[in-house]
Each structure stands twice: as C-alpha cells, then as structure tokens.
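Entry:
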Amino acid sequence: MNLKKAAVLLGLTAMASGVAVAQDDDHGRIPSLDHVFVIMMENHYIDQVLGQTFTPFTNSYAASANLAKNYWAVGHPSLTNYLEIVGGSNFGIQNDNSPDWHNTNCVSTLQVPVDESSAPVTCPISGSGIDAATPALDTTNEGTPTEPIHNIPVPAAKTVGVNIADQLVEHGMTWKSYQENLPPYGADKVNNSDGLVSDVTASEPGMPKLYAVKHNPFAYFANVQAGTNPALSLKQIVDFHQLFADLNSGNVPNLAFIAPDQCHDQHGRGSSEMGTGCSVDQNAIASGDAALSVLIKAIHNSPAWKQGRTAIVTVWDENDYSSLPNNVVAIVDTNYGTHGKTSNVMYNHFSLLKSLEDGFGLPHINHAADRNVKAMSDLFAAH
C-alpha cells in the first residue's frame, strides 16, 4: 500500500461510529427544501469521470454547481449503496440479488443473517435488527481488483427497516422513483427489462438488461411491495416517460429519485447484457455524460425549478472495476444560494440522506443519525 492510500484509510477509519436509529441534535443545518432530484450514476472513481475529455458536460456542470470532492460510497455492490442513500443502512444485504417478491414468509436479513451463497433472492426488508458491517478493505466488487478497495469502515449496528419514502409519506410529502426502461406495466415482479420485454412477460435470450431492479431500492421494502398505502407503494415507481411528463407540467414530487438505465448511468457491461455500444468503458462514460446533460436541462427547464427551493444531487453509487479508493463524484445544484463551490469535507451516502432529511424537516434514521456523519451544509447553503 502506498502512502497516499494509507493516509486515505486513516481518514476513513476516523469516520466510523456507532449507529443510532433516532434523531440526533445535528438538525436544521440544511435550508428547507421543496423539491430534490437525486440522479444516480454508476461505478466509477472520481478521476475516471472528472477531468476526462469524454465527459464535457459533467466537467462543466461540476464547476458551475457545487462539487463534493471528498465524497465516498460506503461499500459494494450497487444495491447496498442505493439502500444506504435512501435508508441509511445496507439492511444486512451485501449482494445485487433481486427481491423475493411478496414473500411474506421470508425473514428479513435484518432479523436473520443470510448465507448469500445459498440465497438467490433477497427477502423483503421489514422489521428491525442488525445490519451488516462494511469492511475497510473489500475485494467483493464486480471487477477484478489487484488489491482491495478502500471503503469507509462501518460497524454492524441496530437498524430499522424503513427508508426516506416512509418518512415523507408520514409527514404528508411525496416521492417517486423514476426508472429508465421500466416497462409500461410497472415495477411489480420486474427484475430486468429492455423497456418492453421483461422477465415478467417472456424473457428473450440476450434481452438487454437496461432496467435493473438492483438500482431501484424502494422495491426491496415489504410495505412498498404490499402496497397497502398507495402513497407508499410500487405505484410510485414509474418510467422516464412519466418523468418528462411531470417535469413538463411542473407536477413533481418532493423527492424524485432518478435512475438512468444501465447504458446511460455509465454502468457498462458486456453487449449481451446492455446492447451494442455500452460495453466499452469509455463509451459507457461518454453515453452517461450525454444522458446526464439531457436530464439536467429538462429539470432546469421545468416549472418546478422556478418554484421554491429546489436541489439536484447527482451522485455515483460506487467505484467499481478497480482497486482505487471508493471516492466518487457528488454534485449539488440548487436554484438558490451558493454556486461554484468545491468542498473538501469528507462526506458519504449517509451524509446525503442526512442532508435530504434536514431539507425536508425529517428525523435522521439509521446511519444518517451517526454523530460523525456530517450534513452537506456547505453545498446546500443558502448564502
């Protein structure tokens, strides 16, 4: 290990702390927010995105908005990071397995540790218990690292099986998960889709897996699957046709969680999974840069951008394909206050959840309540 990586690891270790599941006293440092758009990108270390010739929009956008230069994903693989952003925990899940849809006899990983090698699907998240620890050094990413990836070490802790959607609905606010290439018949039981054909209809050999449920964290929660409350159900998970319709009308939820498909989020995989043109890493990054440009311009042109206090957070889920530190891009753009700021404060996915909760006046849940997790107040600042 070189000196730079050793210094990084020391900084990461300093952030680890015990987890509370109630509100702490670090509330109210983020201005009150009316709408937040969270755009999820995929699988690249910060220097693989910023400063590259094939990411002109992202470079320009990071400079004109606010950049968290010292922002860290929490662990691996993708699903765990998505869950940590919306729920402040991995909920004991350390794989990308699809949900065990509507299985009420399945015991949540919070309550019973699961041998992932023998569990091809993930039980719906519910109840309370202990989540899984995140190791400082991790070799479980989807690439082939020459040495372990450096993570923020987080100990296992008491966790409740809720997410920010539960909080918003409880406080009379709204949310939607916008998923590109989700089929028009909805999210229920759909693990992968090319936008029309899915594993619910008649999966065809070689079907591009553009939509992936592992990038749709809300679908893993038992109460969302059950749909007893329409405001907290799979009905709130919609495709990009609805995203652009909502942006055009200005009728957007308080929280819009936006996941481009696996070709447009810079994920990148073999052509048999994504379709021709997405398999080469540089092509995937360039495609994602272009897709991000379309999304940001559509939000900026929406009537919602001119109403109240609104923010866009563009964040990468993790660093994959390499043994570089798990330091990723996070950009905060607001229709008010500070612009052009670069922050060197160490933040992570729990910091993002804490900031969203502060902006919406919600309690802090799970690891977002850790006292050593900082809200991103300098990047959301009103002045």
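Confidence is low (pLDDT under 50) at residues 1-27.
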